[in-house]
Give the backbone structure.
Amino acid sequence: MKDLSLNADAEFHSSDIHEQHQELADAMTELRRTTDHGSDAEIAKALDEFVEFLSSYFLFHTFTEEKLMYDHHYPRDAYFAHVREHKEVILDLIEMQDGHPPRRLLKITATNPRERAHQLIEAFTGWIHSHIEQEDSKLLAFLEERGI
Ligand SMILES: [Fe+2]
Ligand SMILES: [Fe+2]
């Protein structure tokens, strides 16, 4: 298991961001596979595990990006716009872990596990694609220009 501690002394690079995006995509593919072929019980279990994984891994991922922005003096307005998007997802994940429907970016209303998994996959995939295309791409360009 990777060290996901939010260590203030950790040093990250743009390659870490790419690797973490891949890790998130792999976890989503795995959940999609179970959702397509598993029983309701298997899907419910996979869904709980995915939310658990996402709650720690997404937090670690956003910590990585936010620390890079902070350490390398990313422009303030761009920093706040980017961080705001991360926090909305984190608040949704906290609600899901507490057993409440998330109300911000991940709108999940279904009660049946298969439907819930579908809604989560669609919502998170849609969100992360547009976030990577907009905020993350700007950050990656900023870091790569500086050889970080
Ligand atoms: Fe981001
Ligand atoms: Fe990202």
